[in-house]
Amino acid sequence: MPPSIDSLELPPFRPRFPWWGADLQTIAILLNSKVASFSPHTSERVCFPMADRTGDILLGMFDRPAEPVEGRPLAILIHGLTGSEDSSYILKAARHLLDRGYPVLRLNVRGAGPSRAYCTEVYHVGRTADFRRVLSQIPEELTRNGMVAVGYSLGGAMLLKYLGEEGAFSPLLAAASICAPIDLLGTCKHMLRPRNWVYHRYMLRCIKAEATGTGARLSEEERTIVRGARSVWEYDDRFISPRYGFMGAADYYELCAPRNFMPEIRVPTMVLAACDDPWIPVDHYRSFKWSDNPWLLPVMPGTGGHVGFHGDASHQSWCDVALEKFLDRTASMAA
């Protein structure tokens, strides 16, 4: 079972100047500079061939702490939509965990970041088989203290779906999702509102570039559909759905929605979301029956934006502090 919220002793989240409000908290992720160096920690490239006859290879970066702490499990970080191993939130979380003795694997999902050139296919929330395949290929030397996983935004949605599918059979010791869209249809409709126009256009432009990037194997018709898509809904409805066996965007969203799988999770899992997230309605979290599954620990601060959490207590993201406390506490309970 996960630790209680009180046992984590989380400091209250208060926004740091000048990142006041949900939108500035969210935009800060795009504006903040990336981690310049992991020194004295070291990194090495790792590869995970897929087993579906596509020849696709997922790439990751394994980061080894300069001063490992005995018993610390491998922390696998999964980025969000159009992100990668080099997304600022991934780099900062990795640095935070490395400094505390955790080995880290920054995974690029299929067709994302450095994986793009080595993949003919693209990712979507339903591709949990890819993550299952990655877990089965991680060398035993790296997993002797176990594994934990952390998913951000769409990566968090995929992780929650995987955890529900696996139930008690998952090899993970613990997991956490950060600002995951647990209701895909509701989130898509929310992103299409006029107030989110700028966010939506930015994400759509990045999705198109990613889907048609080097390595992607698309027919001319598919390329035309992707380039002409006027919304994320249209991209999912006319490209993702027919390509991967769904009847349309609504079918894809319903079949892959994490909230449909979360009742079956049997791994201690922290589900963190900001109540003012401009991308994901907090009502999706508030309406979920958390009491029905004691393996889930909801953490919902009033503010923080989408994967923001720039607090006044330190320059370290508040969600990284929450993650550290959750993983430390979970490990101590398992010991």
Topology of this protein?
Blueprint: H1 22-31, E1 42-49, E2 57-64, E3 74-78, H2 88-99, E4 104-107, H3 128-137, H4 140-143, E5 147-152, H5 154-166, E6 172-178, H6 184-191, H7 197-211, H8 220-228, H9 232-243, H10 249-256, E7 269-272, H11 283-286, E8 296-299, H12 318-334
Parallel strand pairs: 3-4, 3-5, 5-6, 6-7, 7-8
Antiparallel strand pairs: 1-2, 2-4
- Tell me, rounded to a whole number, the average pLDDT: 94
Strand line-up in the sheet with most strands: 1-2-4-3-5-6-7-8
Could you tell me the radius of gyration in angstroms? 19 Å
The general outline is globular
Low-confidence segments: none
Structural class: alpha/beta
The proportion of strand residues reads 5-15%
* CATH homologous superfamily title of the largest domain: Alpha/Beta hydrolase fold, catalytic domain
Q: CATH fold name of the largest domain, please?
A: Rossmann fold
How far apart are the first and last residues' alpha carbons, in Å? Answer: 13 Å
State the helicity in percent bands: 25-40%
